[in-house]
Amino acid sequence: MTNAKQINMHYFDALLASGTFPIITAFLLGVFVSVHPCPLTLNVTAIGYIANDIENKKAVLTTGILYTAGRIFTYTLLTLIIFLGANALNVSDFFLQYGEMLIGPFLIIIGILMLDFIPWSFSFTEKIKSFFGKKIKNKRYGAFLLGCVFSLVFCPHTAVVYFGILLPLTLTANGGFLLPVSFGIGTGLPVVLISWILTHSLAKAGSFFSNLKIIENRIRIITAIIFIFAGVFFIFETLHGHGCNHTH
Hints:
The chain has helices at residues 2-17, 22-35, 40-50, 57-83, 88-115, 123-137, 139-150, 156-172, 179-209, 212-240. The protein has 10 helices and no strands.
């Protein structure tokens, strides 16, 4: 593990030393964070959500862009908050401590809403179900919301990259306010590309079997189940102290 960390730090040092263009550096840092094993569970969940509309492949690209926009919004907002005076270490510690604790119930609720599994019939709960259910099922709201929320879950590696490398670079580089945007694009791009490839593959399979609608409905159910299992996973990891925040 020590050797791996040393390799990562050497990689970052070389990247920053050759960072003639900070925007490119920020983008590459975002890609590195996205493909790191630590956020794997969230990335799989995001891919399942983005790629489940195989009847409309163009909508998948739009959903992916909105998901990335959500990540950009969160990273830019966090940077602004810290720039206005918040202590970066305290902000980092807060999200490292509570990020996984909060994301678990959030994912479970979304999964249940996607399944229309809430049996309550009281007027108040029906209004809540109707409002949030429509927002989650509407890809414009849902994808942006997921991007915003998923960006708030930091592992030690992602926290080091964002709070320890990107923020100082943002404060010292020319046009630094663009770096969180470039970083957010880097974190979202691999997820969007995988979702797009997966959608095209499933669409071809559906066309071959002439059951595109059936496959899409099953994918939506599977996506909801992925959300619920991911939520249970994060809750379990938090309760037992084995999350990626505790294994380093």
